[in-house]
Structure formats: C-alpha cells, structure tokens
Amino acid sequence: MNCYYHQERAAVAQCGKCGKGLCQECIDKTEYTFDEKAMCRDCNRQTIDFLLEDDKKEKNKLIIKSAII
Q1: Which site from 35, 38, 53, 62 is most exposed, i.e. has the minimal number of CB atoms within 10 Å?
Q2: Quick one: CA torsion of 4, 39, 28, 49, rounded to 10 degrees?
Q3: Whole-angstrom Cα distance, residue 68 to residue 31?
Q4: What dihedral do alpha carbons 15, 36, 56, 20 form, nearest 10°?
Q5: Distance between CA 41 and CA 27 in Å, rounded?
Q6: How many Å apart are CA 52 and CA 9, to the nearest integer?
C-alpha cells in the first residue's frame, strides 16, 4: 500500500480513523490522533473544524448569558 497523499511513497501506517495509507512525512505532520494512531490530513481537518464549531457554540452561549445578566 502507498501513501494516500504521496503515491510514490510506501505507507508505513494507516489513518486511525478512516484507514488511508500514510507515509512517515504524513505521520510526522499529524496534529491529532485517533485511538493513539495518526490521522490523515482530511480526518485532522474534520477534527479541527469540529473543535472550532464546538468552541464557537460555547462562545455564543457565554454571549447570550452575559446579555441576559
């Protein structure tokens, strides 16, 4: 199996979330893990988007609470 993002490189692991093949460079660049396994950049992006959306919801709750007080 080759790396999903670098087809010329052999995969040394798979994304812990979706199973895409990852080369060492991709593993080194991963920000988040899933069950202690590296995640591909697509799954990392989904995680970041989810965390940002969750953070935005919390901020909106605080704004509403402070407006009521």
Answers
A1: 35
A2: 110
A3: 38
A4: 0
A5: 9
A6: 32
Q: Is 19 left (phi over 0), alpha (psi -120 to 50) or beta?
A: left
pLDDT in tens, 43-63: 999 988 888 887 777 666 666
Identify which has the larger pLDDT, 33 or 21: 21
DSSP annotation string for 8-24: TSB-SEE-TTT--EE-H
Please give the single-letter amino acid code of residue 27.
Answer: I
Closest CA to 18 of 47, 3, 40, 49: 40
Q: Which residue has the tokens 């812990």?
A: 16
pTM reported for the whole predicted model: 0.70
Contact 47, 38 (CB under 8 A): no
